[in-house]
Structures are given as structure tokens and as C-alpha cells.
Design a protein that fits this description.
The chain has helices spanning 42-51, 62-69, 78-85, 110-119, 131-139, 206-222, and strands at 4-11, 56-61, 88-91, 103-106, 124-128, 145-151, 171-178, 184-190. By secondary structure, it is of the alpha/beta class. It has one domain (4-199): Dihydrofolate Reductase, subunit A, CATH 3.40.430.10. It has an eight-stranded mixed beta sheet with strand order 4-3-2-5-1-6-8-7, with helices on both faces.
């Protein structure tokens, strides 16, 4: 059984768009590309090395694949060499150049194909970037591990990890660390449905009951055109 592991860099307000380069992904007028670079340090480098020590394949959305394919084949460092020899599964429903060696297209019945892929023997599947693909994985409860690195930056616009329609879900923190530059590196695994404390004994005061009624009336008035 293979795990799907999502690794993502986030701003404090949840943006994951174009962390590495100004022209990485300027779609929708995004002008903040490269927001993570000045925060990189040895602690982050060592933590990342631990995360990617075990064998893995890549699972990428079309746009992230195109970014990777335009960069990593031309790098001769450790990561570039690893990416060159592993399988790269690409989820894309539009035409795409798969000339990067060991690239495999998934373009039909995506959810079932991903479920089949998880059941196969082989290394875990690492997802980098790929915001649209991540939404699909989250919506179908296909994420087994989430590495979320939160940078001390707020932007106020751009593609986000958790968007409208994200499934309600509880997560369990399994590991955390902090860089010298204030980046919080946290790892999570799914922990079932969101648990509400609805059974706790509580008798609301008259003031609380009045507040609840007031808010209900305000909400009704908002939609009463």
C-alpha cells in the first residue's frame, strides 16, 4: 500500500502560490512569487532531507509538472538526480509534453486511478505544489500525510491550500520543528471526522439565548431583499 504524501509551503494566510520564483506562477495577476526564499536555512534543508530520505515517486498536477520539467532536468544536484530516475505521475486533462523520462500520464477516471495506484506495491507518492490536484485529493480523503511548512508571511491573495468546499476533517500533529527564520514545519496525518463538544453540559443564560435569537434575525434580514 502506497501513501500519498503532500508537501507544501504556505504563508500564514494559507497561500501556496509561487513560493520559489517571481515568474513561477503569475496567474491571476499574482505578483508575490518567491516569498519563501529569504527564509530558507540549514534547519529547513536538514528537515527536508529527512522527509525525502525514503524512496518515493512524484505525483503532480499539470502546471507543477511543467514547472518541474522546465527546471529539474537541467540541475545536477542531489534532488535533480533523484527526480531524473523516479517515476513522475502527472494528473492532466489537457495536452501536455511528457518528454521528461519516466513521466506517466493520468488523464481519465482520475480518482479511481489514484486509488489503484495507492494499492500497488511501490514507493510512496509525493505531491509538491499542485494546488488543484491537492484539492481533489483532500476532497476524496486520499491524503495520508501532510507536511505543511508555514512561513511568517501574509499576502492576502493567491491560490490557497484549503479552499471553499474542503472536506471537514480532523488532523493529528505527528512532528514539528521551527527554523531559525520562524518557519513552522509541521507534519500531520488524518484523524477522522471533526469532533464537536456537543455533549458537554451547558445551560445558556438568558443573555446568551437573547444573543442567539438576535443573530438569527440579523442573518434572516441579510438575505431578505
Amino acid at each position: 500500500m502506497r501513501k500519498i504524501i503532500v508537501a507544501t509551503y504556505l504563508t500564514m494566510d494559507g497561500v501556496l502560490q509561487a513560493p520559489g520564483l517571481p515568474e513561477e506562477d503569475p496567474s491571476n495577476g499574482f505578483k508575490w512569487g518567491g516569498w519563501m526564499v529569504n527564509h530558507w536555512d540549514e534547519v529547513m534543508k536538514n528537515t527536508l532531507s529527512k522527509i525525502i530520505t525514503s524512496p518515493y515517486d512524484l505525483l503532480l498536477g499539470r502546471r507543477t509538472y511543467e514547472i518541474f520539467a522546465s527546471h529539474w532536468p537541467y540541475q545536477n544536484d542531489e534532488i535533480g538526480q533523484v527526480f531524473a530516475r523516479i517515476n513522475k505521475y502527472v494528473v492532466a486533462t489537457t495536452p501536455i509534453d511528457l518528454s521528461w523520462k519516466h513521466s506517466i500520464l493520468i488523464n481519465k477516471d482520475v480518482i479511481n486511478e489514484l486509488k489503484k495506484l495507492k494499492k500497488q506495491d511501490g514507493p510512496d507518492l509525493f505531491v509538491w505544489g499542485s494546488s488543484r490536484l491537492v484539492q481533489t485529493l483532500l476532497a476524496n480523503h486520499l491524503v495520508d500525510v501532510l507536511h505543511a511548512w508555514t512561513f511568517p508571511v501574509t499576502i492576502g491573495e493567491g491560490k490557497k491550500l484549503f479552499q471553499e468546499g474542503t472536506q471537514a476533517q480532523q488532523w493529528k500533529l505527528t512532528e514539528s520543528a521551527m527554523s531559525t527564520t520562524g518557519v513552522v514545519m509541521a507534519s500531520y496525518v488524518p484523524d477522522g471526522e471533526v469532533r464537536l463538544d456537543s455533549d458537554a453540559p451547558y445551560t445558556p443564560s438568558e443573555a446568551e439565548l437573547t444573543r442567539r435569537m438576535k443573530w438569527k434575525l440579523e442573518e434572516a434580514e441579510t438575505f431578505n431583499f
